[in-house]
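Incident log, structure service

09:12 report received: a user says their structure output differs between two submissions of the same chain.
09:20 pulled the input from the user's history:
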Amino acid sequence: MVFRFPPMVLFLVFMVAVCSAAVAALARCYSWGARVMIPSVLIAFFALGIVLPNMALDRVVVTPKRIEQRTGFWFAPMTKGFDYGDVESVRIAHGVTGGRRRGKLWYVRHLNGKVEPINPGDLWESNTQEIVPLLEGYGVTFE
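09:34 re-ran on a clean worker, output below:
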């Protein structure tokens, strides 16, 4: 099963970019100045050039043998996940996800005793309610 961001979410990000570009155009036409135009152009560029492609390319793939998430910037993607055959159990708990930020982590206990913390991305985390039963059906034990 493949999980992706819903098309409506992608459309809303696109509309943020369109509205920001419209504000920038109005600022140019009505001489509102750079204080309005520059931030509007930057928001439109950020939404269209970084956020929208990232969200469109993100996916969580659950197969009978593995869960894998492709995430990160479109120009430098990263993959995270694990093979079920190497896993003893999984525990979902709150932890420090990076710096001082706290969030949900998946602590994957491998058969060799090593515990690997996986910081699920927004897409993985928002679909946890559907992902956990799928993984349990494939034999993954949750603590």
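09:41 both user submissions now match this output. Likely a transient worker issue. Closing.
09:42 reviewer note: DSSP finds four helices and seven strands in the chain. The chain has a mean pLDDT of 89.
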